[in-house]
Amino acid sequence: EHGGSFLVVEDLHAGYGDVRVLHGIGLRVGRGEICAILGPNGAGKTTLLRALCGMVRGRGTVRLDGTALTGRSPDAVARLGVGHVPEGRGTFMPLTVEENLRLGAYTRRDRAAVQADLDRVYGYFPVLKSRLGQAAGSLSGGEQQMLAIGRALMLRPRLLLLDEPSLGLAPLVTRELFGIVRSINEEERTTVVVVEQNAHLALDIAGQAHVLETGRIVLSGSAARIRADEQVAQSYLGYR
Ligand code: ATP
């Protein structure tokens, strides 16, 4: 499946003002695949996701299913079906669980479909249904991450971008979360790009993986191949 062309990134450069972070990123993700982006702190993983979703201006090519995303606003990119779950989650703490989820459907007007999507999200995350009237700020870290993913799902994304979903979560909670991400991917064929420090978990669910270092991809391949790479093993798989 390598070389799929649902998401195509070519020679992507991006940064913040004069600070250049990404130096010519190229990768391809096939429709329905899960792609993991690994790499050390500061490598540019978060910046890559921001460039994909329009939060950071990039130079180069980003195409989703043939449509150019480069140069579009985050809102326009969201309307084209890209759901972004940022690091730190970005949920609105004083709002209830359900209000947060409804915000995720802001691009949509069809009330009945929004209700159906709420039910769909509650199907993946039953704990959110049991807390639907509670303030998001009262949820546990894992529940807040579920809420953030649920909110992105309300867009009916074709591409889901997950930034460090395991951050600050207990291993058991992380495992459950990744299991749900896999179910979403399998049941809806949602293409997923996941940035993770926890390489073991990411490689468990990913088909392809890329290792990013100082703004460049230094290694790409099947998750199995990346897992077997000695350098990767030393740098990123030394813990579980
Ligand atoms: P982490 O896992 O720590 O989030 P990362 O691989 O996601 O690391 P980025 O967050 O993309 O890396 O950061 C890459 C580089 O860009 C770092 O040197 C960082 O200091 C810089 N950077 C990130 N955000 C900004 C910003 N808003 N303004 C200026 N520089 C930034």
TrEMBL record:
SUPFAM superfamilies: P-loop containing nucleoside triphosphate hydrolases. InterPro entries: AAA+_ATPase, ABC_transporter-like_ATP-bd, ABC_transporter-like_CS, BCAA_Transport_ATP-bd_LivF, P-loop_NTPase. It comes from the Bacteria. GO terms for biological process: L-amino acid transport. Keywords: Amino-acid transport, ATP-binding, Nucleotide-binding, Transport. CDD domains: ABC_TM1139_LivF_branched (cd03224). Residues 7-239 form the ABC transporter domain. GO terms for molecular function: ATP binding; ATP hydrolysis activity; branched-chain amino acid transmembrane transporter activity. Belongs to the ABC transporter superfamily. This is Branched-chain amino acid transport system ATP-binding protein. It comes from Actinomadura viridis.
